[in-house]
Amino acid sequence: MRRKNYWLLFAILLLSLTALSQGQDLSQTPSGHEEEDDASLFPQPSTQERTSQSPIRVTVHLSDEDFKQLEELNHTYVTDTGATVELNNIPDADSYLQLTSALAVGEGPDVMLINSSWVRPMASRGYLLPVEFYTSNRADSDTINPLLQEVEWNGYQWGTPADMDPYVLAWNMKALNSLGVTDIPGGISSWKELLSKAKNRGHQQLLEISSGDGYDAAALMGALGTDPLSPSQASLEWIDKARAFMQIDQTEQGADGAQLPLTISAVSEAAKSQTANTELRMPEQLYAIYPSLLRSRSYAVSAGSQHAKEAAEWIAYMSSAVVQQEWYQATGKLPALKSLYDDTVFNPAGLPFHLNSLLQTAGTDKDTGRLQAKWDVFVKASGDYITGKSAAADYVEAVRGEAGGS
Fold it and tell me: What is the tally of structural domains in the chain?
């Protein structure tokens, strides 16, 4: 009798163990191939760790106003996707040093929104991932080509252009017409005519130029149809004669400045004071040769990021046409996508002017680095020349004679 009970208990125990084993097998994921495939391309922590403990860390170099706008866009992204994103802004002047110091010791963020001119130096030091590594859906054909030049190095693309804030010429057409000029000057001859009419009418001031940062001087020379590093004699003579009609070193544009025929400033600043009488012009041909003058910013992924796939998704959202349009309307920074300037059907962004050369150029590396390589020299030399602290000959000697370009 006892023996039968033992066998009965043994049978019950065996059946229980079998059922438990089957139940455990059914609760497991059939395979981990999908996650393993992702991990082989983008080494990452587990999904649970990634979502609850390690958000996508994004560090940007923006003004306080632009950062607030980015926070709003990011809030929309987080709400729509359920992603966890940690934003950090470094508006300081030494932000490049702060970022590279963190990247050097493996403590950099996953994503950065930085000046495009920083991309090549960071890439050459091994701090960035090439775009080809973390995405296969790039819309290069829709990105303004000179902006791509800024983020290409060693045969790869290392950043995704986000926006640009080039210096433009804001023409007050009412003030210009008061001088007897009906059309915005194009060639140097029409610029000479403008100056002559200003003199004949006893005009005190013709244009406002802040001087000192280099971009305003480059924009003026580009509008005059000359290369800042190889200026024509005619353009230098015009600047010498026009200096008496320049409003220089004004920290703020007041009511008087707004009434001048011409103001040179960043497009985001020009947009703030734009009226029905204002027309904006950009020296596109010069900017196509020297893309650094476009003052663009780009998204980049750090080489040490463990969330490259998630970073790519965030960048794709932030660099989309819809978001770039919202960004322009909120900040005045111009989009990086060519399609937003195409108004053959309609202009979705409502941009203040048309682009031609920048959209058509295929881009070239022939001269792009020359101005950037001697930028500090150019800033000092152009500032001194515009303000009359140095002569034209001194300026030419400085920009042509310094090492860093030919």
Answer: 2
